[in-house]
Design goal:
Radius of gyration: 26 Å
Structural class: alpha/beta
Number of helices: 10
Number of strands: 13
Strand content: 15-25%
Largest sheet: 7 strands, mixed
Strand order of the largest sheet: 3-2-1-4-5-6-7
Length: 361
């Protein structure tokens, strides 16, 4: 946390900037600096649980004697979102989106997982600009779903970036601070998001502690290595057994499994695949016959449905048809009554689908 010497040092650097006419901290030339340094008057923009972690640390700082946060108010979206609940529970003043009456009241804006483009006229009202906590090492994974795409694409390293907001486009502003993070093997998007939320909150505090210095050394983003992370939608949940490998299915499940179930088709009906257990090693009665992708084999010893994909077999402990069924229930109630033990990809043509459904293990 802050010490008196560190606070004094930051104040002196800001005072030097004021004396020498350096007035581009917030990215707007000629902006009036209403504060000579911390403690900062902050307006926070956020919505979900990822954003709550940063808001928690700012709230603690506001209530402490570290001299970092003088005042803290919150802009939330409509509905009972986590940031709004936290703000109300902790008696933080709240504003609806878009906020009114911000002129001259705040030094800095902080945006975390907000999802709305901020217009230039709003950005210009903050002498030190608006900061954003973004869960990737920009310019990799710009966009609304960086954590999901980190898992989906098998990245082994990610991180958190503190950047300045620019109008009209998301995630393209100059970088003030970054910290890397090793992606744990087999972690889910939820687990990674939780770790990055904590890391991002601490990195935000670190950035605010040395804000004038970091703004003086900010780094513009280049296009090299830039990637886009679009929103996750349910169309991504459909399995394509003949194209997806065991590793790809594992990453897909860990990326989107908390939002939507993986899905396939069996005898013309949608089946949702639950409780993924990873790659399976199975023995077939006829080792000379190569199974078709989508072939289903019930493994009695482990009570698992093994499904053939591009390079092997993956297992699921449960499915959802009319109701939730264990692997044994699905086998006893449906699978063993037919010789068409085949899950079909939605993208398969009707002719190929008919041929595949007429095949069996």
């Amino acid at each position: 946390m802050w010490t008196n010497n560190r606070t004094a040092g930051v104040c002196l650097r800001v005072l030097h900037c004021l004396q020498t006419g350096c007035r581009t901290w917030g990215g707007v030339r000629g902006a009036h600096l209403s504060s000579s340094g911390p403690p900062w008057r902050l307006l926070f923009f956020g919505s979900d649980n990822f954003a709550v972690e940063s808001l928690k640390l700012l709230t603690v700082s506001r209530s402490s004697t570290d001299g970092l946060v003088e005042s803290l108010e919150v802009v939330t979206l409509s509905g009972n979102v986590p940031v709004k609940r936290f703000a109300l529970e902790n008696q933080l003043p709240t504003h609806s989106w878009p906020p009114d009456n911000v002129d001259g009241r705040f030094d800095i804006g902080v945006v975390v997982s907000f999802g709305c483009l901020l217009p230039e006229r709003l950005i210009n009202k903050f002498p030190y600009g608006i900061l954003n906590v973004h869960p990737s090492l920009l310019p990799r994974w710009r966009g609304p779903a960086p954590i999901f795409h980190t898992i989906l694409h098998g990245d082994t390293v990610t991180g958190v970036t503190i950047m300045q907001i620019r109008p009209k486009r998301f995630d393209v502003g100059p970088i003030l601070n970054q910290e890397g993070h090793q992606v744990p093997e087999d972690c889910t998007a939820d687990e990674l998001g939780s770790a990055l939320a904590t890391k991002g909150a601490h990195l935000l505090i670190d950035t605010l502690m040395t804000l004038p210095e970091r703004m003086g050394n900010k780094k513009e983003q280049g296009q090299t290595g830039a990637t886009f992370a679009p929103k996750i939608n349910t169309s991504m949940s459909w399995m394509v057994w003949e194209e997806q490998t065991c590793d790809q299915i594992s990453r897909l499940y860990r990326a989107i499994g908390s939002l939507t179930h993986l899905r396939t088709i069996w005898m013309g009906r949608t089946v949702k695949l639950l409780n993924f257990v990873g790659k399976c090693h199975i023995s077939l009665s006829d080792e000379r016959r190569k199974p078709l992708p989508g072939s289903v084999s019930y493994q009695r010893e482990s009570n698992t449905l093994a499904v053939c994909c591009k390079d092997g077999w993956v297992g699921f402990k449960e499915v959802l048809l009319k109701k939730r069924l264990t692997a044994a229930d699905f086998y006893n109630g449906y699978l063993h009554q037919t010789d068409r033990g085949l899950f079909v990809s939605k993208t398969t043509s009707s002719e190929a689908r008919q041929m595949r459904e007429n095949s069996s293990l």
